[in-house]
Amino acid sequence: MNQYHLRKSFSALLATAAFGAGLGLSVAAAADLTVARAVDADSLDPDKTSTTQSLQMTNLIFDTLLTMDKDGSLHPGIASAWSVSDDGKTYSFTIRDGVKCHDGSLFDGAAAKARVDRAIDPATVNPDRSLWGPITSTSVDGNVLKVSLSEPYSPFLSFLTGIQAGFVCPSAFATADFKPIGTGPFKFVSWTRNDSLKLAANADYQNFNPMIENPGKPHIDTLTFKVIPEAVARMAALRSGEVDIVEPSLEETADLKSDSNFKVYAADLSGQQVLAAFSWKIKPLDNPEIRKAIGMAMNRDAYANIAFEGLVTTSSCPVAPRLFATDEALCASWGEKYDPEAAKAIMEKAGYTADKPLKIKLLAHKLSGWDQMHQIMQQDLAAINVQAEIETREVAAHFDHMSSENKRTDGEPFVWTMGMSGVDPDYLNFLWKQPGFVNMGLNEQVDTMVDAQRTLMGDARAAKIHDIEKYLLENAYTVPLLSPGWNWLMASNAKVDGFKLGFMVSLLFNDVTLKQ
Amino acid sequence: MLFLISRRVLVAFATVIVVIILSGLLIHVVPGDPVTAMMAQSVSATPEAMAEMRTRLGLDLPVWQQVLLYLSRVLHGDLGTTIRGNESVLRLLMQRVPNTFALAVSGLGLALAIGIPLGFLAAVNRGRLADTAVMFIAVLGVSIPAFWLGLIMIQVFALKLDWLPVAGSSWRNIILPALTLGLTYCALVARMTRSALVDVLEEDYIRTARAKGLRGHEVLLVHALRPALISIVTVVGLVFAYLLGGQVIIENVFSWNGIGRLAVQAMLERDYPMIQGFIVVFAVSVVIVSMLIDILYNFLDPRMRQK
Q: Would you say the pTM of this structure is higher than 0.90?
């Protein structure tokens, strides 16, 4: 009897195993371009997410109103023309005729209005709401969309070229259940979270992005993104030919670069900037001289060449290279130059010697390259009698920690690092205007300057941005380190031709062809 | 028997309620704020917008109110929606439960298929070469980290031999992770089987059976196996319950889309509803499995029924 039960249980176990395995199955993929990434998108709704990994995906499905060339100049997108009123408070966009959504519906002025209205509606709870600017109303006249602002907001046009400003078709949000329907180069096919996202080329696609050569439908037919979290497994998938493009591990990128079977792509246009900042409210880092000494001790060339394998460059501005008004030479003249001897002299004068060093924390988030950078930085600081204890956290925990740390006015001083990205220097406003991102805001003088740049255009705006950068650097509130700095690398097998990385690490597959 | 089962079900239900309350509470002890986490990576919202989002997500309510609300919703079958993506937590978890279940069952199946015969072999040949060899393999199995074994499997079977894929969701993808799990846990099963059998083989009734002139395999299979199974079942049950919580490392190495990976992702993103949902689903599976083990004991060991 009992043996019978046991046999029965065992057969049940086998049956369950077979059943369970069956449920885990799905049909194998057809021939396509396959890309492996470490992390999946968290949403395909550009109004519900602010992570680069998600926006890289939405940017393939949704087009933007305007586009930006490598030099930062603005070009048409879904909008064929645009104009700004003299007071800088009204923008008009002429929506192109015949732009079709993936479901066949027409994308016209009314659709563009509905999209902007949704982005700014408080009920949407859009994490990027502030980037849309102080929009008060929208209206549509024929194919012309008019956007009215309460005050001038000069970053508006650059924002409309960026991956956060994907133009979603109204049919996407007609029901409570969001459907990824846009006008972009790829149509949504299916998505299994944390596993794979399948897209298919949009046969009706018309390209207006000057960084893309192909005027119409992408050359590849289907595009599949697989999530392979483990770097070693991701690289194995690339080497075995299971995937065509991967986010490589930093450690293996140097090998791939010297191997003719692979190609490495670095996002020069990432808009990414790696910065160090200080607990400037806490003694002795309230003294700009001490902050300057720390900046002078930082050997940025070593961070770029050793920690980041020479795949990034040092940067001197508080805003990433190639963005509007960024002038590396000008910033270099305001900021600290690497001079450990002079830095040590400043520290000794302030009473910090090898026997009595200044004890600080070095607060950072975990990322490959960054960990090594912080170790070198720790040695750099030790050389000028600053004893730094490194504390690393996961990215979300780091910023959470920083928002309470930056409020402190006493206790142990700290130096911390972070990365920032965008398509416009307006992120100075986001970071430094009080209270500022994770409470890193500075003072009223900075608040006034970062607000003022938003109301200016052209050279006047560039001059104001330079004023802000000069102030930040001369007072040593920040030490610009490197650009770019995180998930900015891609690698492919040699079959892949024409893959590009655009602004903010957008992935451009329109020109990709697969050599046999 | 019926009384016993209903008592177990009641205890299980009470345990689940306690776990739901604890998961609701624990989440507030862990450092980290979901709204900051959402905004962490790029140019994002103003502090006002963050405060507004906090209100919308109910994070400004007193903790006890949040916990009670959560308890009542879970008991109505609603695990809430994720902070990121606004999707049903239950649906996301249920999409992955079959994958985790398939991996747990196949991994454990392999561990049993390899571990029990090895344990038998070692117990019967106690002190001899076969025993030493099996125990050596067992020590090796326990000491080799699963992620390392997994990566070696990928190097050998996917990269060098090109027999199996590295990542994906087809049936061929389960082979490598299941094999890795099987090899990792077979060591534990073999050790357990050996020690259980060694104990049983020293019992008086085994000596009696032998004295009656029963043949070796009859003694083993008829008289020794069933009592030995009791401790094997305990271990298997515990391992199975553990595996149902998702093999985070194995799932990551082989990109297997199970609930373990979902949970880790949610933890990194501070997605409270998702983490709570995972804890509830994990707790329910552990409770169900241990309940089934208790019931299985009664079939295996008549003495338990009398108790």
A: no
